[in-house]
Each structure stands twice: as C-alpha cells, then as structure tokens.
Amino acid sequence: MKMLLILTDVTSKMDPTDYVGFTFFVGCMAMMAASAFFFLSLNQFDRKWRTSVLVSGLITFIAAVHYFYMRDYWAANMESPTFFRYVDWILTVPLMCVEFYLILKIAGAKPSLMWKMIGFSVIMLITGYFGEAVYTDQAALWGAISGLAYFYIVYEIWLGSAKKLAVAAGGETLKAHKILCWFVLVGWAIYPLGYMLGTDGWYTNILGSGSVDVVYNIADAVNKIGFGLVIYALAVSKQNSIS
Q1: Of 83, 55, 5, 31, nearest in space to 180 by CA
Q2: DSSP code of residue 42
Q3: In this structure, is the dihedral angle defined by the CA atoms of residues 207, 211, 212 and 216, taken in order, positive or negative?
Q4: What is the DSSP letter of 79?
Q5: Contact indicator for 213, 74 with CB cutoff of 8 Å
Q6: Alpha-carbon span 154 to 149, nearest angstrom
Q7: For residues 194 and 152, what is the distance between their CA atoms, to the nearest angstrom?
Q8: Which run of H or E residues covers position 84?
Q9: Sign of the CA dihedral with 27 first, then 239, 174, and 165 last
Q10: What letter would DSSP give residue 243?
C-alpha cells in the first residue's frame, strides 16, 4: 500500500510537457509488453530455439524493471538516472551479445565467441560508467577505452569469426545476423554519442553538451525490442521449416 501511494504521488506530479518522463513511462510499458509476448510464445518453439526467445524476453523484462525505477528517479530528482541506466545495460547488453552466439550455434559457434563478446561488452560498459559517473575529469580517456571495446564488437560481428559463421549458416540465419549487425552499428551508436554529449572532453567544442535521455529511451526500446523480434522471426521461420 505504501508503494502504491508513492507511485501515485510521483505520477500525479509529472508535468505533461515532461517528454523525458513520458519516454521513460512508454519505454517501460513497451518493454514489459514485449516481455509478455516473448514469454507467452515460448511453448510454440522446440528446445533448440526456446532459449533464444527466452533470452529476448529476459532482455526486455530486465529493461522494463529498470525503466520503472528510472522513471520514478527522474520524476523525483529531474536528473538523468545514470546509475540505474548502467545497471540495466550491464545486464542486458551482454545478453544481447549472447543472442549472436545462440543463433550461430547451428554453424558451429563455440562458447569462446560468446564469452569474448560478453567480456568486451562489460569492458565497454564499465569504462563508460567510470568516465560518466566516477572519473568525470578523465571522461575522454575512459570513453576512448569504451569506444575501442564497442568497435571490437562491431568488427567481430561484421568482419570477424561471427560473420564467417553467419555466412556458413546462410539462409534465414545470415539474414537475421545482418539485421542484428545493423542494430549494433546504427542503434548502439547513439550511446557513445550520448556519452560525449553528457561529459566534458576534447569533443565538447565540436558536439556541445546536453541531455539525451529522450534519445536514450527511444533507442533502448527500439534496440531491445527490435533485437527480440528479429530472434523471434528467425525462430518462427526455423520452426516452420521443420514442420
């Protein structure tokens, strides 16, 4: 009951022109709905593809829970919920990397590929958090390390062993892999841009500074739900081909 009163108080005070709060709320609801969709669809797949769809549901569910808290944090403090956002990313981004491994197992992907991508995603996020929230006077240095880890992931999926495995798998798997690659290259690119806008460094004179919470929120929903829908479509096509 106490929690309900707190939530009612927070939402009742939300400014109708508060577009950041609005996108937090919409993002939370969209990702919760996506989670329900993925979880409820699990029974239609065999065990081979059920794990991939389950991970998609976990990604959006974890994000929805964090967006619930981020929305309330924003409403109470009117400042970017950096801590909660990075906690969300440190859980969901490695899971998105796991999806590459899961769809490429058919072509012989080894667990080493999965752990390598998870490792670089964690480095990318931890160093990003250090630069944005801990060692803010060295944001450019930490951002550069984070950027290098991001570009390694991009290289791995576009040109490295992941790409070779996708080509070997061919068909619907290759198509799904290409779409996921575009999500990483284009969709994830908003995050380093937001990092540079939110911190001070050599790039500040070029890009300026400002809040990108609205763009972050939209990008999060599009990337995480989009990732899941690509996996779902691949699982459906594979399931239909078997039956």
Answers
A1: 55
A2: G
A3: positive
A4: S
A5: yes
A6: 9
A7: 19
A8: helix 82-104
A9: positive
A10: -
Would you state the structure tokens that stand for residue 36, as one six-digit string? 């329900």
C-alpha distances out from residue 222 to 90, 92, 188, 213, Å: 18, 14, 10, 14
Residue type at 50 in one-letter notation: R
The two three-digit tokens of residue 203, written as one number: 């790039």
- What does DSSP assign to residue 16? T
Any idea which of 87-101, 148-162, 190-204 has the lowest mean pLDDT? 190-204
| 27-71 pLDDT per residue, tens | 999 999 999 999 999 999 988 899 999 999 999 999 999 999 999
Going by the DSSP 8-state scheme, the letter that residue 200 receives in this structure is -
Burial-class residue 17 by CB neighbours within 10 Å (0-12, 13-18, 19+): exposed
**What pTM value is reported for the model?**
0.90
